[in-house]
Write a sequence for this structure.
């Protein structure tokens, strides 16, 4: 009975080890189906207010007491100069501002946040330039944009880049796939290549737009109530 259990354990261990390369390969393949980059961000060091010098006052039995007077209201902050890694809160604020701001070239919908991660969906209208396309592929290209923030840096990921035709039977699906979702008979290779080229070009436009926005400090809204 003990020998049988030992054999079963060895077999299970062997199967687990054999499966590890497959998991690693799958994860590596997923990395190839996205656009990802880590960006370092520095911000100006915040100004500081110099502490007032202690003032000695006579106390009981001639002993002197020290106390600090509050700084006068007109005291201006002292610019300490230099830069520091951008705080997570600042990066989150910038990322959220980008996701909620309207853009004339593409649509951003469903912005969400969880912890230090922001996420939204981006979509582009796709319309073939040729007058008589080989297939009715007009529709949209959508992609998921994720911004993961850490102190002094953020990582953006653009993935799940998908073509969806208005006529569902001609949707190409994942643009990283060689064969379209609807099949090569419905969507010929030349048309599929054009869709993929369009989608990846637009994904790079989104990445550039996001990176430029993440460089800008977000202005605080005034409370006009």
């Amino acid at each position: 009975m003990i020998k049988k259990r030992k054999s079963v354990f060895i077999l299970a261990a062997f199967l687990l080890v054999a499966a590890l390369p497959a998991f690693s390969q799958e994860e590596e393949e997923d990395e190839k189906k996205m656009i990802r980059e880590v960006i370092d961000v520095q911000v100006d060091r915040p100004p500081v207010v110099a502490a007032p010098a202690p003032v000695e006052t006579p106390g009981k039995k001639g002993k002197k007491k020290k106390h600090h007077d509050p700084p006068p209201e007109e005291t201006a902050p002292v610019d300490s100069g230099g830069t520091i890694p951008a705080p997570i809160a600042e990066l989150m604020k910038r990322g959220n501002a980008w996701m909620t701001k309207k853009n004339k070239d593409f649509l951003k919908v469903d912005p969400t946040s969880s912890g230090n991660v922001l996420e939204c969906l981006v979509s582009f209208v796709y319309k073939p330039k040729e007058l008589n396309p080989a297939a009715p592929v007009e529709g949209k290209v959508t992609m998921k944009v994720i911004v993961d923030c850490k102190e002094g840096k953020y990582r953006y990921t653009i993935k799940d880049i998908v073509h969806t035709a208005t006529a569902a039977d001609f949707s190409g699906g994942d643009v990283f796939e060689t064969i379209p979702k609807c099949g090569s008979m419905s969507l010929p290779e030349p048309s599929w290549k054009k869709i993929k080229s369009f989608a990846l070009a637009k994904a790079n436009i989104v990445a550039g737009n996001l990176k430029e926005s993440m460089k800008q400090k977000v202005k605080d809204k005034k409370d006009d109530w």
Summary: The first helix runs from residue 2 to 31.
